[in-house]
């Protein structure tokens, strides 16, 4: 594992693509992802240095998740069908559009947990760090989201 970034520029260079991809998956729109990406790194810049060295990635995910939740309170966001194609191939008559619509109606915290775990394949410890909760709470959010998604696509 590489050493913690010493400067904000190093942090940006190391994580910018990954955070933008996460923002795109959360928002479903390149325009909204650009905004979320910029808000995330602006907040990180203002809070630099991170509270715990060596945990910068989780810190950025948590900032991005919180910004997405804050920004989506007034409007719903969509996970792109292309991202879903990677996470869940069409089967049993359930289309990717059905799955996308089911994810859209999830509460924001559950949507973020679902995207991090089911779409991006992140381990529960990373989901927990990004959401600022325990691993057990992250597992519960993912499980609750899965139940709601399954119920919606039936």
Report on this structure.
The chain has 154 residues and is mostly helical. It has a single domain, classed as Butyryl-CoA Dehydrogenase, subunit A, domain 3 (Up-down Bundle). The chain is 71% helix and 0% strand. The chain contains eight helices and no strands. The longest helix has 20 residues, at 8-27. The chain is globular. It starts with 7 loop residues before the first helix and ends with a helix. The model is unreliable at 73-77 (pLDDT under 50).
Main attributes of the structure:
Butyryl-CoA Dehydrogenase, subunit A, domain 3, mainly alpha, 154 residues, 8 helices
Low-confidence regions: 73-77
CATH architecture: Up-down Bundle
CATH hierarchy class name:
Mainly Alpha
**Computed Rg:** 15 Å
Topology order in helix (H) and strand (E) letters: HHHHHHHH
Structural class: mainly alpha
Number of helices: 8
The 3D shape can be described as globular
Q: Give the beta-strand count.
A: 0
Which percent range describes the beta-strand content? under 5%
Q: Return the domain count.
A: 1
Q: Please name the fourth-level CATH homologous superfamily.
A: PhyR, sigma-like (SL) domain
Helix content: over 70%
The major sheet is characterized as:
none
CATH topology descriptor: Butyryl-CoA Dehydrogenase, subunit A, domain 3
| First and last CA, distance | 43 Å
Determine the mean pLDDT: 80
